[in-house]
Design goal:
Its EC number is 2.8.4.3. Helix content is about 35%, strand content about 20%. It is α/β, with parallel strands linked by helices. Helix 12 packs parallel to helix 13. The radius of gyration is 23 Å and the shape is globular.
């Protein structure tokens, strides 16, 4: 799938060189980090042991720039590695991602022990930049101004055997005043539909049964070719791929969310009844100041249509509290939308300045104590709604895809965890028969908490899957690797389908 021009030339890496990738930010960065790991392993590096905490031959920081203190966090981490690098000959440090794209030469000025700085558009160059820095014994800073290769076309070390990200576009054409992403990742560029579907079919052939379509503004897909229905066509095409059980996507923009997408979601069985629809604010005045090209009525209209077409859909959102100029009346409009929309979950954040964004220099910045008080009121309301909505699930029979690493107390409670079709997290009683991550179980929901469900009765059915086979094969390979067979295979874990970083990147 990748031409020779998309990748760095081969580099000569001594055997047993280890690497560690540290990821900050949204799903786009998680996806990029899988590719960075894949590139390094293709170049001959092997993963550092779990918990190595910087004790590796190469440490890569994949950074995020949407937080006010993102640079402080980076330089603090770089500072902690400086003495380790000084005492470890040959160790290299690389910095990539959005902050690298933004700060460029500043990084090596502030942290001259950094060996490589690369941007969001040229992650494929990391191995050759490391080699060049080693040979020339000086820092290499290379920031491309346009995309060299879609992340999904690069080698990968996927985080999961049974679930995968698939990039369908990069960049963003919006101009939200709180977001710096368009300046760092560029204008939207869509990937060819045939390439997307070919990658998905390859993943399914490897045992993957769930994919998440990924883009900064995923439902604007098709803008390159002027086809406003390209995204709904892509969803329907995913429905025709045999063996693909679950399709998700993140994150859409209300401006581009059209009726044909709702119809495709409702009519395509493997497109899951889940929607993450960023709100940011319920106030028309604030939305205008944010340059969000929709208003409250339009947003609630989308929610109403989705619920009419997909009654059991779980709808989640992003909300920013305390945007410059937000009045108490504006905030009450946000509270009104939350009551009306009845989100399953909301990723709620206090506004913080993003250097380089128009909002950072706006007048009427809201005092911290006011923002904090509003934030607490909003969180309390959403907690109440989340719990009420989860209680409506009690008594339902659901199919869960068994997950790994999602239930921190599973060992103590003798439970396993899985995701329902609508992406709710469910902890269920461990059955007598073997159940593997990627397998599917049928359970009855018996209890609801605000952020998870319980199925305390016996599992009603277990369906062993090709995804479970893939997990088992990978687990066996990693066991062999730990015994001394260095296969360089991916570690185990499932990518979290919902955004955890909002206000920028993949959460518009």
């Amino acid at each position: 799938m990748t031409s020779s021009s998309d990748r760095s030339p081969a580099v000569d890496v001594p055997s047993s060189k280890t690497y560690e990738v540290r990821t900050y930010g949204c799903q786009m960065n998680v996806h990029d980090s899988e590719r960075l790991s894949g590139l390094l392993e293709e170049a001959g590096y092997v993963p550092a042991p779990e918990g190595s905490d910087g004790d590796a031959d190469v440490v890569v920081f994949n950074t995020c720039a949407v937080r006010e203190n993102a640079d402080n966090r980076l330089y603090g981490n770089l500072g902690r590695l400086a003495p380790r690098k000084a005492s470890r000959p040959g160790m290299q440090i690389a910095v990539g991602g959005c902050l690298a794209q933004k700060d460029r030469d500043t990084i090596v000025k502030k942290a001259p022990w950094v060996d490589v700085v690369f941007g969001t558009h040229n992650i494929g160059k990391l191995p050759i930049l490391l080699e060049r820095a080693r040979v020339q014994e000086e820092a290499q800073v290379e920031i491309a101004e346009s995309l060299e290769a879609f992340p999904s076309t690069l080698p990968t070390r996927r985080e999961s055997a049974y679930a995968a990200w698939v990039s369908i576009s990069v960049g963003c054409n919006n101009t939200c005043t709180f977001c710096i992403v368009p300046a760092l990742r560029g204008k939207e560029k869509d990937r060819r539909t045939g390439d997307i579907l070919a990658e998905i079919e390859t993943l399914v052939g490897e045992g993957v049964s769930e994919i998440t379509l990924l883009g900064q503004n995923v439902n604007a897909y098709g803008s390159d070719i002027g086809d406003r229905e390209a995204f709904s066509k892509l969803l329907r095409a995913c429905g025709a791929i045999e063996g693909l059980e679950r399709v998700r996507f993140t994150s859409p923009h209300p401006r581009d969310f059209t009726d044909d997408v709702i119809a495709a979601m409702a009519e395509t069985p493997n497109v899951m009844p889940q929607l993450h629809m960023p709100l940011q604010s319920g106030s028309d005045t604030v939305l205008k100041a944010m340059r969000r090209s929709y208003r409250q009525e339009r947003y609630l209209g989308i929610i109403e249509k989705v619920r009419a077409a997909i009654p059991h859909a779980a709808i989640t959102t992003d909300i920013i509290v305390g945007f410059p100029g937000e009045t108490e009346e504006d905030f009450e409009q946000t509270m009104h939308v939350v009551r009306e929309a009845r989100f399953t979950q909301a990723f709620t954040f206090q506004y913080s300045k993003r250097p380089g964004t128009p909002a950072a220099t706006m007048e009427n910045q809201i005092p911290k104590e006011v923002v904090q008080a509003r934030y607490e009121r909003l969180v309390a309301l959403q907690e109440e709604i989340s719990w009420e909505e989860n209680k409506r699930q009690v008594g339902r029979t659901l199919e869960l895809m068994v997950a790994e690493g999602e239930g921190r107390k599973d060992g103590a409670t003798h439970r396993l965890s899985g995701r329902a079709p609508d992406n709710r997290l469910v902890h269920f009683t461990k059955p007598d028969q073997e159940v593997r991550p990627g397998d599917v179980v049928t359970v009855e929901i018996t209890y609801a908490a605000p952020h998870h469900l319980l199925a305390e009765g016996a599992v009603l059915d277990v369906r062993r899957t090709r995804a479970g086979d893939a997990w088992e094969k990978r687990n066996a390979a990693e066991a062999a690797e730990s015994a001394g067979v260095m296969l360089g295979l991916p570690k185990i874990g499932v990518p979290e389908p919902l955004p955890v970083a909002t206000g920028g990147c993949a959460a518009h």
